[in-house]
């Protein structure tokens, strides 16, 4: 074997070793990222999860709003990425505890009984106005001492929460996507999908409640979302005794 052939063989061998090392490194990083995502969502390989579906506020009993369907599709993609499975349940048939399986609950308490139960038991500092009669506070959120009113198509709010049962042996989280309108439900799921890595780094496996503002949805749909505040402490504490919030928030 002359020097040229030897150099070619050594070059091929070196390239093969480099490619193998690169493949191993990429596989390791991908698996580490997958494990972090699975831990954040509580979805190990082949685990089961629940997608709790609300109903259309003005539709027949089993109707689902278009934007809520889009929200469910985005959540289904997240679940599939974790190598897990999802069972879809209507909100009024999900009569079971939480913590055994990861749960994704979509829709406000007016259209989702399951969401109403979660807010009552897990977030005592949150009230959602579900009055049927028109009025300035219809659909508004009260979080602690602050109230956030809805202006349809211009300024709307949503709560995104990851919660676990503190006194339970079951540790799978429940994710809440509670919007003032169906498009804000989808905005909350999209915000989670886009920011899951940052949220996992910040909160780990802990609970959080984020207040999001959806801006000009009539023009931008669910894409333009601002984080208003981390309201975890206020949402998990009892409401203050004063019946009238000190602040109201409305688009100018």
UniProtKB/TrEMBL annotation:
Name listed for the protein in its UniProt record: Secreted protein
Superkingdom of this protein's organism: Bacteria
TM segment ranges: 6-29
Keywords for the protein's UniProt record, in alphabetical order: Membrane, Transmembrane, Transmembrane helix
Taxonomic lineage: Bacteria, Bacillati, Actinomycetota, Actinomycetes, Kitasatosporales
């Amino acid at each position: 074997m002359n020097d040229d052939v030897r150099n070619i063989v050594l070059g091929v061998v070196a390239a093969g070793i480099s490619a193998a090392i690169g493949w191993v490194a990429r596989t390791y990083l991908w698996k580490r990222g997958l494990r972090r995502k699975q831990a954040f969502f509580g979805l190990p390989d082949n685990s089961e999860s629940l997608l709790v579906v609300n109903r259309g506020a003005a539709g027949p009993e089993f109707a689902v709003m278009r934007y809520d369907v889009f929200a469910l599709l985005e959540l289904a993609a997240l679940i599939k990425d974790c190598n897990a499975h999802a069972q879809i349940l209507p909100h009024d048939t999900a009569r079971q505890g939480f913590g055994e399986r990861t749960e994704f609950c979509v829709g406000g308490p007016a259209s989702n009984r399951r969401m109403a139960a979660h807010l009552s038991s897990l977030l005592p500092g949150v009230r959602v106005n579900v009055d049927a009669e028109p009025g300035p506070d219809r659909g508004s959120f009260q979080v602690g001492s602050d109230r956030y009113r809805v202006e349809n198509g211009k300024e709307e709010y949503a709560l995104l929460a990851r919660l676990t049962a503190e006194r339970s042996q079951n540790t799978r989280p429940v994710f809440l996507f509670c919007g003032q309108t169906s498009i804000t439900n989808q905005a909350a799921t999209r915000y989670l999908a886009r920011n899951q890595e940052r949220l996992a780094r910040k909160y780990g496996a802990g609970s959080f409640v984020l207040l999001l503002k959806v801006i000009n949805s009539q023009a931008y749909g669910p894409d333009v979302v601002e984080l208003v505040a981390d309201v975890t402490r206020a949402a998990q504490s009892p409401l203050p005794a004063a019946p009238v919030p000190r602040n109201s928030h409305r688009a100018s």
